[in-house]
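Lab channel / #folding
Pinned by the channel admin:
"Please post every new chain as: sequence first, then the structure tokens as a reply. Keep commentary short and put observations after the output so the thread stays searchable."

First post following the new format, from NK:
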Amino acid sequence: MKYHHHGYVSHDPRIQAPAGAGIDRPEELPERVDVLIVGAGPAGMITAAQLSQFPGIVTRIVDRRAGRLEVGLADGLQPRSLETFEAFGFAQRLAAEACHVTKTAFWKPDPQNPADIVRVSRVDEDPHDVSEYPHLTVNQARVLDYFAEFMANAPTRMKPDYGYEFLGLTVADEGDYPVAVRLARVGDASGGQRIVHARYVVGADGGRSGVRKAIGLALQGVSSNHAWGVMDLLADTDFPDIRTKCAIQSEADGNILLIPREGGFLFRLYVDLGEVNESDAGAVRNMPVEQIIERAQRIFHPYRLDVREVAWHSVYEVGHRLCDHFDDAIPVAGKAPRSPRVFIAGDAGHTHSAKAGQGMNASMQDGFNLGWKLGHVLEGRSPARLLSTYSAERQKIGQDLIDQDLRWATQMAKSSEAFATHAEFEQAYLRITEFAQGFMTCYAPSMIVAPAAHQSLAAGYPVGKRFRSAEVMRVADANRLHLGHEARADGRWRIYVFADSTRAGEDSPLAALGRWLDESPESPIRGYTPAGLDENAWFDLKVIYQQDYAAVDIGRVPAVFLPRVGTHRLPDVENVYAALPDRDIFQLRGIDRQGAVVIVRPDQYVANVLPLTATDELAGFIRSFAARQQ
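Reply from TO:
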């Protein structure tokens, strides 16, 4: 966290000074906005939170609820989401109040007495150690609260506008604010409507999305005709694994997925309600919670389940549906392609079962992907064609998610007899782990993802995949920390320069790169960052040396890695790092000892890997997505 560079402050440094749209922000919804987000769920809130860091952009987020979400809905947070929360500054605070899921226990019918269940194995939740973060469970409402706090503390002083219902929209062929959105106050008996004109609209309004329907898109897919009851419970029970994630198979009454929740007492049950007749017409959704509890009690036999309180419950039928496009720029034969103006995110674009814990997690990655792109286009940092990469990237991930979830939902619905051995069920679970944790996403080459021509220089940072953190030593203060945790959700690109084996100040490829970055008009620092802003305002440049931190003379580090920032133009000396002797990042992440440049997008995905000497390639890649500034 950087502060004091504009002068001494004594207040909470998380509260940024108001700027731009945050100065005298109107309480009433304006008639004209740059971005209107419909839906204050996970996808909408993270999009708004990212845009709250762009003071010159007027963003508003509306929701038909009367106020904040209080209970129910999603609860599982995968490690990739925690990495994302670190960028927004609340990962550690949320982890402190959440339930940490470290093991999954598998239960099946007792061979000696099949009417009873017995534990047969336990597995690590992260057997591959792919993240420093755990799998957590916590009420979705708390995630939204933290995003709301981040927005309120941002320069734009953003907050949701509750109580607005989306009625429809039209998109004009021209004009600065081409999208006209019709809204109505929820509960307004007068039937009054209002029109908000926007440059861009984001539909994050759920599986029954009105925004999606308004732009002529539809979810395509099938339902499995298999129903599940879900309950958040407080109960007196002698089941020994009540605070452990469990996959439970019974002989005759179906299966249960048990998810421990935050606070030490609450837990969630997904209860298998079996196949639903095609003529049911949704009647199963009206099943009384008492019937779901009775089935759960039979599955838990011989253990006692005395339910004292049901905090929330629902019944759903497993469905897997996806839109073939995530924006309104749908190709039409004979017509020139146009830039998108309306986008859908989260459940508006993809729906699936809840048991793999992907709904909230995947939805937030949609919003994180889209938010910075809107910010860059509206600020003039990038051309409008950048926005076409959103649908191209996230629609494919939506398909991958549904394919994977369909396989897992099918496994969970099987009876115990359907598996040749218990190990077969356990292996089916382990196969989905890395995908479920959010680490199998890999974006294809585009204007913001280069072909992996130099991947061997940084094998542990695959181009197109998320930047996997590792520990380093910050030279200025000898603090051991995670390199990835230093990247905030501020809309900046990251350029990580892994040095060659020479020392700071010696003539070397690193020194030559430092001069080019500091002097060349093709440099992202000198050619693209506007005059008058901090030198690192658009590109966050960091260097990591191979030597022990004590051998790095910070006074001989190239000046470009010590950018001058703030009102007083103070040098920022906290961008210089050294490898740790016991956990050498060069070894851990397969960095060539000749050095490498790893370019990372604002949403934490690796965009390119280059040699230290490839300044022409670096300049060409920056030109592909960045607009030159005067």
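NK: Residues 388-413 form the longest helix (26 residues).
TO: also worth noting, The chain is about 25% helix and 25% strand.
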